[in-house]
Amino acid sequence: MDKNLFKNHDYEKIKDNLVSWLQERVETTGLEGAVVGLSGGIDSAVTARLAQLAFGENLLTVIMPCHSSSSDREDALKIANEFQMQVIENDLSDVYDHLLDELKSTGIKDGKLAEANIKPRLRMTSLYYYAQIKNYLVIGTDNWSELKIGYFTKHGDGGIDLAPLGSLVKHEVKELAQVLDIPAEIIEKKPSAGLWDGQTDESEMGFSYEELDQYILSGKAEPEVEAKIKKLASKNSHKVAPVPIPNRDKLL
Q: What kind of fold does domain 11-250 have according to CATH?
């Protein structure tokens, strides 16, 4: 990958601009702060740190294990403790089990991805509970690379109020993380949505973030990689599009 595509940016300036953007967007709503889910990954760590710089004590971080890796919980706590963030923890495993049992009792079952996607949707329900009570917005962790191909759960991690990383590809998020003093082990951690044991972003996508970022920033990719990216982007385009509604003039 041509590192000049992202190495030459002024990441201190990007940090300051994103902090100001968050402050302006929240102020516009008349609300008071932010809620961020901490997963133990780089995107949530960077998002939480930006929100902390923007809102100080008016940031609530939430750790929500759901049959998750214990190392993810430990990494999330590491970020909260490193930067002295207000943090609460809710284990959603029992809630998930109960809901899944109820859903399967209807006789419609055996959908691995459908079952896995319940987890981020339960997490988002929890975040909005806290946000509404505290008069905060829910700040999402989706980056441009994920948004480009729809690599997120609809009404799960995609069901948010603001996406401050939405204009940065994964490698740019890594550069920003260094400016924000995110621990190196978090920056270099293999990206995973934690949907099931052993799941990683790149194995599920079928190409690397390096290949995806190169394509987004330069339009260049191996033909088979480009085809996979375009196929995913097309398949998941409904996730980023406004909800379709019929044209009133054609109805009347």
A: Rossmann fold (3.40.50)
